[in-house]
């Protein structure tokens, strides 16, 4: 049987982090999934198919998500040089600026949550959190 305090603590921490991210995204007129999209594209230029897998979205959902971001000038689509059937998604300068600004605000918020932790506690929490995240889990 699961330790209820453990489960509750992790659930409450998840809510705290997700709410902070949602609030920051909202201030920039972004949804959580749009924020994740920009986070992925900060460091990668995936295909539409890879992006869908990474974000856990089907083909029509990822198309709509990228369409909306493209209309806002945050991303662009380009055909792959090696296979014209494949479309690559890239972040624009405006998208990168927005992604970096949101990431900085998010880091500041997380720092405020952890303000009462010692450096040893921070290191221990980092190690434990990394152990809980499956190696195959998408980031962002």
Automatic annotation (TrEMBL):
Source domain of life: Bacteria
Gene3D superfamilies reported in the protein's UniProt record: Winged helix-like DNA-binding domain superfamily/Winged helix DNA-binding domain
HTH marR-type domain span: 3-134
Coiled-coil residue windows: none
SMART domains assigned to the protein according to its UniProt record, in alphabetical order: HTH_MARR
InterPro entries with a match to the protein in the record: HTH_MarR-typ, MarR/SlyA-like, WH-like_DNA-bd_sf, WH_DNA-bd_sf
Alphabetical list of PANTHER family matching this protein: HTH-TYPE TRANSCRIPTIONAL REPRESSOR YETL (PTHR33164:SF43), TRANSCRIPTIONAL REGULATOR, MARR FAMILY (PTHR33164)
Protein name, as recorded: MarR family transcriptional regulator
Lineage, top ranks: Bacteria, Bacillati, Actinomycetota, Actinomycetes, Micromonosporales
């Amino acid at each position: 049987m699961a330790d209820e305090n453990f489960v509750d603590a992790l659930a409450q921490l998840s809510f705290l982090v997700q709410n902070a991210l949602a609030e920051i995204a909202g201030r920039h007129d972004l949804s959580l999934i749009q924020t994740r999209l920009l986070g992925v594209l900060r460091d990668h230029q995936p295909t539409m198919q890879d992006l869908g897998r990474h974000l856990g979205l089907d083909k029509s959902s990822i198309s709509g998500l990228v369409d909306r971001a493209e209309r806002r000038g945050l991303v662009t689509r380009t055909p792959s040089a090696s296979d014209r059937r494949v479309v690559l998604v890239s972040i624009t300068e405006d998208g990168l600026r927005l992604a970096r600004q949101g990431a900085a605000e998010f880091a500041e918020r997380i720092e405020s949550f952890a303000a009462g932790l010692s450096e040893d506690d921070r290191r221990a929490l980092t190690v434990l959190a990394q152990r809980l995240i499956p190696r195959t889990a998408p980031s962002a």
